[in-house]
Amino acid sequence: MITYSAQIYSTIITLALTPLLISFVGAEGFGLIGFYLILQTWLQIFDAGISGTLSRQIALSKNCRLSLNSFLKNFYKIYTLFAIISVIIFLIGTYTAETFSKHWFETSLSIDVVSFCIKSMMVSLSFKYLSGPLRSGLIGLEFHGLLGIFNLFFTTLRYPVGLLILYLYDNSLKAYFSYQAVIAILEWLALQVLFYIKSKQTINNAKVSAKPITSSIKTLLVLSTQLSILSILWVLVSQIDKLLLSGAMSLELFGYYSLAVTITGVIFTLNMPINQVLMPRLTSLIANNNNKKYSELLINASLFSAVLFIPFAVFISFFGKELVWAWTGDIKAAENASHYIIWLAIGNVAAVLVNFAFLLQFTLKNLKKHLIAYIIYSVIVIPITFLVVKNQPGEGTAIFWMLHNCLFLILWGGYTFKFYLTRYFSTVLIPAIIIVSAASLGIQASFHTIIEHLNLERLELFFLLATVGLLCVSILILSIWLLKSRITTIVHNISLVTEK
Asked: Is the pLDDT of residue 451 over 50?
């Protein structure tokens, strides 16, 4: 609960402060901030899936003192490798910052300002990269509540205080990005201390007599190989369009696209705590051969995601323009961002749902098929993305994002669910998606007709839209609750297939 509360807080703070951020730095400045967010995602390429493997391995080792001690020795060896890569990222990034700034961005901002901001981004990215294994370690130890409080504290420093820095330093992008670099360093230092203390505490509480689980560096690297390729491909597929658009569009137009990405990115943000809690828990359940609880947890989590995110996607698709105007007060931003929101939102929901297929493969230690499918998917999608960005930048790119994510969910997600969870895809997930989508469309369409004929001020419209969105989700959650016994019976009859 703390984890999800912290993520909701982070989402609310980000959305609430974005209009002020745009008013302080302008569309071009916000485009530069959007580019920084893209780089944070691309950083996962250098992680190469190792953090995810570390999280899984520590979840398996934490109940045995001997296994955990052995794992931690290997953990710090791998962490040294992260430190070396972090230094390389910093050196290459700062050395090429000025040249990159001159040739990549189409902007009226001075090269000196853009170059300085890029260098500050490199400092932030280096320490964020170094923080990854420490965060994964705490997730594997299942200190979700502590991480939730930690994230809440640093979210406050990063966003509200970051806005204060802009106010105090006359909207200076240099001051803003310098401050973000300082926060990244402080966050890394705090994670170092927390991981050291909590790993020692877990060792002291672990059983001496528990059955040891060996974890050599070779084993860890073998386990992470498939995940690393998947992580790299995922970053390429999900971020290549945004990276290319940052150079193909003016920084102002890219700022509007980034605004649409920020709004629809709430879907990914709210899904993160679900994924964070599920991965170690599912790993632990399958390690203890508790297949029934494993399947029930996975199915219930996927249904919860469908009921939560589909209505949200329908809501921002119907009211995208009105929402952005009520939110920012900028009609130009609202008109531009609304062209992308509907397509990005639908694509994001599909990506969240297909993630449950990945969780199945990952926690069951059977990533080979998923890897092959994702390689084929990437080989098709990436070249087409280049063509779409070149010929139809903006809305065409957003439409393509929606299309390929939906197709991947239907084709590969459907196959995976059918393979591992008998009758789940056809008798539970697809009917749930259809019913929730239809109900959401009906409710939102009714309210859209009413709101169109109202002449409301920004604040009035904003609160009305918020009420409509919450009402739609509440109705669907209430319906699920009323059908709880029926759903429980259906879920209980679905069996997990671990070998076939």
From this structure: yes
